[in-house]
Amino acid sequence: MKKIGMIGLDTSHVTIFAELLSNQDHEHYIGGGEVIAGWPGGSKDFAMSHSRVDEYTNALRDQYGATIFETPEEVAEVSDAIFIHAVDGATHLELFKQVVSYGKPVFIDKPLACSVHDAKAIIELAEEREVLIGSASSLRYWDELVIAIADKEMGEIESMEAWGPLSFQEGMPWYFWYGVHSVEMLVAGLGPGCEEMSLHMNDKSEILNMRWADGRSGIYHGIKEGHGGFGAVIHRSEGVQVLDCAKSSRPYYVSLVERLMDTLVQGKEMVAYDEMLETVKILEWGCRMKDEKNSRLTV
Question: pTM for the whole thing?
Answer without folding.
Answer: 0.96
